C-alpha cells in the first residue's frame, strides 16, 4: 500500500515540480526590421556562447527549447547588425522580441584549401534540376495580397512643414507602429485583395481575376484602378530560377541565374530543416556593391536540389534611384497532382523603402504580402479565357468583414488596426485633401471633378510667331459620367492671329474585356509637318515644346474623322478610320495641280485629303490597366511590338485632291543584355508609289532644338529630308552602371553611360520632288524637302551620361553623313526623365 502511494506522489510531483528541476526552458518571440517593422524570416537566433538556437519562420517568429541558459539571446541575419537581449535567469518561459537595424552585409571569410567553393556544386546541381524539370501544362491558385504604403523617415524638418503640423497628432500615434527602437512610420494606404491566378505553359499565358478588394487610403478615389495595381500580378512572376528579376524597369541579376558565378560570392553556411526538408543554407553577396544584384540567403533542398526559400535584399549602394532598400522574401512549396509535381511560391513578401528626396521631405515605405493556396495542376482553359490578362469582377467592392476574416491567412495585428484608424484621421483633414488634389494634377496633368476633367496643364500656354500667346484648355468626361460614352474636346486661342482653335470628339466604348471602341471627331488647330503626336510618340514634353518659337512648317488642319478599334483576338488590335482633312500651310508652299504640264502647271497652296486608314498591331502578352474609360499599356516583356498601316487616298471624294497608296511597317523591342545592360530598337519602313505633297509622304522627324528626343534624328533639321520610300533603324543601349560602377571617384554618383545609333536609307522620286514649286520658295529657306541619296544612308551616333542628379541626361551627337547640308554636325543635347 505504501509503495503504491509513494509511486502516486512521485508521479504527481513529476507534473507539478517546476520544469527547471529538469532543465527545460522555452524561449520564443519575433524578429523584425527596426526601420520598417516588417518580420525578418530565416534570421538566426541563438544563446550567446552556446551552439543552441533556431531560425525564424517566414513571419519572423521563432521558438525553441533548451536544457540550459546563457545570459543573453543573439539574433543575426545577413544585411543587419547583430543584436542581443538579456535573458531572465531561471525563467521557464520567455518571450523575447528583437528588432534588427540594417547594416553592411558581410559574408564569412571562406578559405578554400583545395578544389572549388563547396557552394558552387550545390548551385550547379540546382540549376541543372531547374533546366531539366518537366514543366506542368498549367496551374492555378487563389491568392491573398495585403499592401501597406507608409511615410517613414519623418525628420524634424519634415514635421515643421505646414501640412505636417496639421498631422502631428497622427504622427505621434504612428510612432508606436515601428516598435520600441524602430523608426516612426505614418500609414497612408492599405489594401486587401483576393484573386484567382491562372498560368498556361504553351503558349505562355497568365491571367489574374481579381474577385474582391478592400482599400483605404489618403486620396484614394477610384477603387477599380487601385484594385488592378494592388493585385499580386507583378509579384506572381517573381522567379529566382530565372536570369533576372525585372522590376521598376530594371533587370536585377538573380543569384540562381546564368550570371551567378561572375556576379556573386557565396558561402555555404549550414544544413538545417525548412519545413519537412533538410536544406543547404547558402549566403550570397554581389562582388560589386553598386551592381544591380542582391545580398541574402537561399535554401536548397538536399535531396531534390529544389529552391525552397529565398531572402534577397538590395541596398542603397546599388545603382538605383530613390531606393534605400528593396527586399524580397519568398517561400516555395511542392505541389503534387498524381505523377505531376512542381514547386510554386506559397508566400512572398516584397518591401521597397524609398529614400528622402531632400532633408525637408520624408521617405516612403511600400510593403506587399502575398499568400497563395488551393493549387490546381494541369487544368487548362481555352485560350480566349486568358484574355484579358487582368480582370476585375463587377462585384469586387461587395465584401463583408466576415469574408475577410475567413479569407485572411492570419488575423490583422494591432499595428494593422492602428494603421487603418490613422488613415481615417488623415483623409478627413482638409489640408491633406488639398495636397492630394495638387499631387494628382501634377502626376496626371488633369484636374478631376465629378463627371469631367480639365487639362492637360502641360499644353495650357505657349508663345510662338504665328499665334502669339497661345492659351488652351481641354476637357473630357470620365467613368462617373458614363461607362460607355466618352466626350472630349479642347479650345485654344492665339492673341496674335486672334483665331480660335477647337476640337470635339464622341466615343462609345462597346467592350472593356475585348477592347472595342468607335467614335467621331472634329479637329481644327495648328499643326506642324512631321511633328504630329503620332510621329513624336509618348514624349509629351517635346510635343509641348513644338508649340513655342518660330513653329516652322505650320499649317491649319481641319479634320473630320470616323474611327473604330477592336482587339479582335488576343494580342492583335485592328483599327480603321475614314478622314477628310484640309491643309492650310502658314508658310511659303506651292504645289503643281497639273504636274504633267511642267512649269506651265497652275499652282495651289491649300488642299484636301480624303483617305481611309487600316492598321494591324500585334503585341504578344501586352498588359494593360484600366483607368476609368482609359486603357494604359504596361508594354510587353522583351517581345517585338509590330504594326502595319495602309492608307488609301481618294481624289474627288468629299473634295479630296489626291489618289494615293501608302504602306508602313514598324517594330519596337527591348532586349535584355545581361551584365551589359539593356537595349531597345525601333525599326520602320515605308513606301508610297504615288505623287503627293510632302505632308502625305514620309517627312522624317528632325530635331534642331537643344532638347533630345529619342524618336527623332537629332542632328537633322525639320523638313530636311522627305522620302517616298525608306528604311530606318534607331538603336539605343544603356550600360546601366557597367562602366561607371567601376570608377571609384564617380561610383557614388550612380551615373550611367549609354550609346545610340540612328540610320536612315531613303529616296524621293523625281516626280515627287518636282511636284513642289521650289522656284517660289525664298532664297534662304528651311523648307527644302530634300531627298536622300539611296546609296548613302543618313547616320548619326551618340553617347553620354544619364542619371545626373537622378533625372538629367546629357547626349553628345555626331552626324556621320550629309555633313555639308547646312545642319549641325555635332551637338550636345539635354533631356529629363524620371526613372529608378
Give structural attributes.
14% helix; mainly beta; 11-stranded mixed sheet; 44% strand; 45 strands; 15 helices; 18-stranded antiparallel sheet; 836 residues; disordered N terminus
Give a description of the structure:
The chain is elongated and about 110 Å long. The strands form 8 sheets. It has an 18-stranded antiparallel β-sheet that branches. It is mainly beta and 836 residues long. The longest helix is centred in the first third of the chain and has 15 residues. The N terminus is likely disordered. A hairpin with a 3-residue loop joins strand 24 and strand 25. It has 15 helices and 45 strands. 14% of the residues lie in helices and 44% in strands.
The number of distinct β-strands equals: 45
The DSSP helix count reads: 15
Distance between the termini: 83 Å
* 3D shape: elongated
Spatial extent as radius of gyration:
32 Å
SS class = mainly beta
How large is the share of residues in beta strands?
A: 35-45%
List the helices and strands and how they pair.
Elements: H1 2-16, E1 25-33, E2 44-47, E3 53-55, E4 61-66, E5 72-76, E6 83-86, E7 93-95, E8 98-100, H2 118-132, E9 138-152, H3 156-159, H4 162-165, H5 168-174, E10 186-200, E11 205-217, H6 223-230, H7 233-236, E12 244-247, E13 250-253, H8 260-263, E14 264-274, E15 277-286, E16 295-301, E17 307-315, E18 323-337, E19 340-354, E20 363-377, E21 390-392, H9 401-407, H10 414-427, H11 430-444, E22 447-448, E23 452-455, E24 461-464, E25 468-477, E26 485-494, E27 500-511, E28 516-528, H12 533-536, H13 540-545, E29 554-569, E30 572-585, E31 591-592, E32 603-604, E33 607-619, E34 623-627, E35 630-635, E36 641-649, E37 660-672, E38 678-687, E39 698-699, E40 722-723, E41 725-734, H14 744-747, E42 752-763, H15 766-771, E43 794-804, E44 808-815, E45 826-832
Parallel strand pairs: 1-7, 1-8, 11-21
Antiparallel strand pairs: 1-4, 2-3, 2-5, 5-6, 9-10, 9-20, 10-11, 12-13, 14-15, 15-16, 16-17, 17-18, 18-19, 19-20, 22-23, 23-25, 24-25, 25-26, 26-27, 27-28, 28-29, 29-30, 30-33, 31-32, 33-36, 34-35, 36-37, 37-38, 38-41, 39-40, 41-42, 42-43, 43-44, 44-45
Amino acid at each position: 500500500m505504501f509503495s503504491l502511494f509513494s509511486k502516486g506522489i512521485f508521479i504527481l510531483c513529476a507534473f507539478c515540480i517546476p520544469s527547471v528541476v529538469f532543465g527545460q526552458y522555452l524561449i520564443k518571440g519575433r524578429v523584425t526590421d527596426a526601420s520598417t517593422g516588417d518580420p525578418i524570416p530565416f534570421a538566426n537566433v541563438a544563446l550567446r556562447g552556446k551552439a543552441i538556437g533556431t531560425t525564424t519562420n517566414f513571419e519572423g517568429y521563432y521558438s525553441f527549447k533548451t536544457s540550459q541558459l546563457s545570459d543573453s539571446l543573439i539574433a543575426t541575419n545577413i544585411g543587419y547588425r547583430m543584436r542581443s537581449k538579456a535573458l531572465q535567469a531561471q525563467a521557464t518561459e520567455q518571450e523575447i522580441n528583437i528588432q534588427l537595424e540594417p547594416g553592411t552585409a558581410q559574408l564569412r571569410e571562406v578559405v578554400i584549401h583545395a578544389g572549388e567553393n563547396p557552394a558552387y556544386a550545390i548551385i550547379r546541381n540546382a540549376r541543372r534540376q531547374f533546366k531539366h524539370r518537366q514543366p506542368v501544362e498549367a496551374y492555378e491558385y487563389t491568392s491573398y495580397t495585403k499592401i501597406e504604403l507608409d511615410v517613414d523617415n519623418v525628420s524634424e524638418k519634415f514635421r515643421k512643414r505646414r501640412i505636417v503640423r496639421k498631422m502631428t497628432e497622427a504622427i505621434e500615434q504612428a510612432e508606436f507602429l515601428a516598435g520600441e527602437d524602430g523608426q516612426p512610420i505614418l500609414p497612408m494606404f492599405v489594401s486587401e485583395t483576393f484573386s484567382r491566378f491562372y498560368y498556361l505553359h504553351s503558349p505562355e499565358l497568365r491571367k489574374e481575376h481579381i474577385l474582391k478588394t478592400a482599400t483605404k487610403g489618403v486620396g484614394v478615389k477610384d477603387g477599380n484602378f487601385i484594385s488592378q495595381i494592388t493585385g499580386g500580378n507583378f509579384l506572381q512572376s517573381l522567379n529566382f530560377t530565372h536570369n533576372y528579376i525585372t522590376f521598376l524597369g530594371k533587370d536585377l541579376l538573380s543569384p540562381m541565374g546564368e550570371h551567378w558565378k561572375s556576379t556573386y560570392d557565396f558561402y555555404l553556411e549550414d544544413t538545417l530543416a525548412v519545413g519537412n526538408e533538410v536544406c543547404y543554407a547558402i549566403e550570397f553577396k554581389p562582388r560589386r556593391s553598386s551592381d544591380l544584384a542582391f545580398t541574402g540567403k537561399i535554401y536548397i533542398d538536399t535531396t531534390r536540389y529544389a529552391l525552397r526559400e529565398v531572402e534577397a535584399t538590395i541596398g542603397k549602394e546599388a545603382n538605383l534611384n530613390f531606393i534605400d532598400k528593396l527586399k524580397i522574401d519568398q517561400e516555395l512549396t511542392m505541389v503534387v497532382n498524381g505523377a505531376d509535381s512542381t514547386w510554386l511560391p506559397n508566400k512572398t513578401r516584397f518591401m521597397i523603402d524609398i529614400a528622402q528626396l531632400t532633408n525637408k521631405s520624408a521617405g516612403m515605405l511600400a510593403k506587399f504580402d502575398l499568400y497563395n493556396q488551393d493549387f490546381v495542376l494541369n487544368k487548362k482553359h481555352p485560350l480566349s479565357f486568358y484574355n484579358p490578362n487582368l480582370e476585375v469582377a463587377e462585384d469586387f467592392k461587395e465584401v463583408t468583414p466576415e469574408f475577410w476574416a475567413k479569407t485572411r491567412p492570419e488575423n490583422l495585428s494591432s499595428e494593422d488596426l492602428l494603421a487603418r484608424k490613422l488613415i481615417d484621421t488623415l483623409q478627413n483633414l482638409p489640408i491633406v485633401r488639398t495636397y492630394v488634389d495638387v499631387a494628382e494634377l501634377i502626376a496626371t496633368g488633369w484636374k478631376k471633378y465629378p463627371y469631367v476633367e480639365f487639362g492637360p496643364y502641360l499644353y495650357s500656354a505657349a508663345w510662338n510667331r504665328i499665334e502669339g500667346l497661345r492659351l488652351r484648355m481641354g476637357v473630357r468626361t470620365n467613368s462617373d459620367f458614363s461607362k460607355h460614352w466618352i466626350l472630349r474636346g479642347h479650345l485654344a486661342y492665339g492673341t496674335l492671329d486672334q483665331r480660335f482653335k477647337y476640337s470635339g470628339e464622341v466615343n462609345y466604348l462597346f467592350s472593356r474585356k475585348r477592347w472595342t471602341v468607335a467614335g467621331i471627331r472634329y479637329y481644327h488647330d495648328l499643326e506642324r509637318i512631321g511633328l504630329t503626336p503620332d510621329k513624336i510618340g509618348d514624349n509629351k514634353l517635346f510635343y509641348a515644346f513644338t508649340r513655342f518659337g518660330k513653329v516652322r512648317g505650320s499649317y491649319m488642319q481641319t479634320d473630320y474623322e470616323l474611327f473604330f478599334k477592336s482587339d479582335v483576338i488576343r494580342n492583335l488590335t485592328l483599327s480603321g478610320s475614314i478622314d477628310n482633312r484640309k491643309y492650310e500651310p502658314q508658310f511659303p508652299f506651292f504645289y503643281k495641280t497639273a504636274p504633267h504640264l511642267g512649269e506651265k502647271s497652275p499652282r495651289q497652296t491649300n488642299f484636301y485629303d480624303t483617305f481611309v486608314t487600316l492598321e494591324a498591331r500585334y503585341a504578344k502578352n501586352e498588359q494593360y490597366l484600366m483607368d476609368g474609360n482609359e486603357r494604359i499599356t504596361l508594354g510587353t516583356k522583351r517581345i517585338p511590338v509590330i504594326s502595319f498601316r495602309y492608307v488609301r487616298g481618294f481624289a474627288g471624294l468629299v473634295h479630296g485632291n489626291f489618289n494615293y497608296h501608302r504602306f508602313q511597317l514598324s517594330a519596337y523591342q527591348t532586349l535584355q543584355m545581361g551584365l551589359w545592360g539593356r537595349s531597345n530598337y525601333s525599326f520602320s519602313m515605308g513606301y508610297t508609289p504615288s505623287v503627293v505633297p510632302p505632308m502625305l509622304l514620309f517627312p522624317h522627324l528632325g530635331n534642331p532644338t537643344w532638347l533630345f528626343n529619342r524618336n527623332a534624328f537629332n542632328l537633322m533639321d525639320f523638313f530636311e529630308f522627305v522620302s517616298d520610300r525608306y528604311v530606318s533603324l534607331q538603336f539605343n543601349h544603356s550600360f546601366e552602371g557597367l562602366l561607371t560602377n567601376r570608377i571609384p571617384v564617380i561610383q557614388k554618383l550612380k551615373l550611367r553611360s549609354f550609346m545610340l545609333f540612328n540610320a536612315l536609307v531613303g529616296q524621293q522620286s523625281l516626280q515627287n520632288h518636282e511636284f513642289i514649286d521650289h522656284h517660289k520658295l525664298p532664297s534662304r529657306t528651311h523648307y527644302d524637302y530634300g531627298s536622300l541619296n539611296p546609296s548613302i544612308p543618313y547616320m548619326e551616333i551618340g553617347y553620354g551620361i544619364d542619371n545626373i542628379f537622378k533625372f538629367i541626361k546629357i547626349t553628345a551627337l555626331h552626324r556621320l553623313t550629309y555633313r555639308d547640308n547646312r545642319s549641325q554636325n555635332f551637338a550636345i543635347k539635354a533631356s529629363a526623365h524620371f526613372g529608378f
